[in-house]
Amino acid sequence: MLGREAATLVDEYQQADQYVETLHATSLPSGVYFYTLKAGNYVQTKKMILLK
């Protein structure tokens, strides 16, 4: 866990609705990654395991 940012999928204000974003991880090595979801005051960080 080096603490480097691997990708940013969305970094803009969006109206309330349902959205789908896809992470194309072809250039990322297998490993454990953390992702953060932010919406207003809500912030949640979770762990993702990428296996190739």
Short structural summary:
With 52 residues, the chain is mainly β.
Task: Please write out the topology.
Elements lengths: L30 E9 L2 E9 L2
Antiparallel strand pairs: 1-2
Q: Could you walk me through the main structural features you see in this protein, from its secondary elements to its overall organization?
A:
- The protein has strands spanning 31-39, 42-50.
- A two-stranded antiparallel ribbon has the order 1-2.
- The chain is built from no helices and two strands.
- The radius of gyration is 13 Å and the shape is globular.
- With 52 residues, it is mainly beta.
Total strand segments: 2
Overall mean pLDDT stands at: 92
The outline comes out as globular
Secondary-structure element string: EE
> Which strand order spans the largest sheet, edge to edge or round the barrel?
1-2
Assembly form of the protein: single chain
Radius of gyration: 13 Å
Main β-sheet description: 2 strands, antiparallel
Portion in beta strands? 25-35%
Low-confidence stretches: none
> Would you tell me the structural class of the helices and strands?
mainly beta
Q: What distance lies between the first and last C-alpha atoms, to the nearest angstrom?
A: 18 Å
Number of helices: 0
Helical amount among residues, as a percent range? under 10%
Attribute tags:
about 50 residues, mainly beta, two-stranded antiparallel ribbon, globular
